[in-house]
Amino acid sequence: MSDLALAPPAAPSLPVRIAARLAGIARRSPTLAIGAAIILAFAIMAVFAPWISPQDPVAANAARVLQPPQAGAWFGTDGNGMDVLSRVIHGSLYAFGIAIPVVIVGLLVGVPVGLWTGWRGGWADEIVMRGFDALRVFPSIILALAVVAAAGPSLLNVVLVLGLLDSPVYARLVRAEVLALRGGTFVESAVAAGNPTHRILFRHILPNALRGAMAQTAVRAAWAVRISATLAFLGVGIQPPTPEWGAMIRQGAEYMVTGEWWVAVFPGTALILMVLGLNMLGDGLSDLLDPRRKAAAR
Could you report the per-residue pLDDT of 127-139, keeping only the tens digit for each? Predict the structure, then answer.
């Protein structure tokens, strides 16, 4: 028998292995695959917005006011003659520009608090968590509306306010995991080996406690997109002529009664699809990252 016949089969290339891995994840969680496809489409639209937008999203044209969808203006124009399609495309950039920083701020504030309170326990845990619970008692939109109105309707203020309001969610998730982990054998072994507290927390506990928080990031990003659009719709978030979906819906709402439906419907549809995609992505991530939830669903 020749040496060629005895040679082992060639290993598949890296792209083939990646494709097989992704196909396996899609089979295990179709919800995640659909959500990821929706968010990937919006991400591509946001990244390439300057090149794929047919017109300047803030260029007013008095000669093209409230034109219906047609060739050359596929989504029509708004009350200022701005191209709705270009504004919807650029609106995805602002949606990601709010959702991602809000999640980062929430994680940076909530994770350390949950890690410390879960490990420390006692009165410090009670005081800190009761303070965080107080933030969750008030309806998020009312509290965000009041704080943003007082601080000013800028993008930075919206991101900081929403991130701080969302941090108790991550703190609760991480704290619950720390409470379950701190009595584990590996933690007792680390303590017995003389590891300092900071090493135990950040080297041994934190990587295991982050699973639940990371699974919730997509869902909380959907919350951030929805609340920021609501603030803009109410007039206290990002202000026109910035191409933000909530502000566009607010501008288009007044034209619905006169039949110019496209001004509000297209940004509203984009908002619904992005929130739906993020929620589906988050639900699929929760199934993959939380074996207990997956087992309970069977």
Answer: 888 888 887 777 7
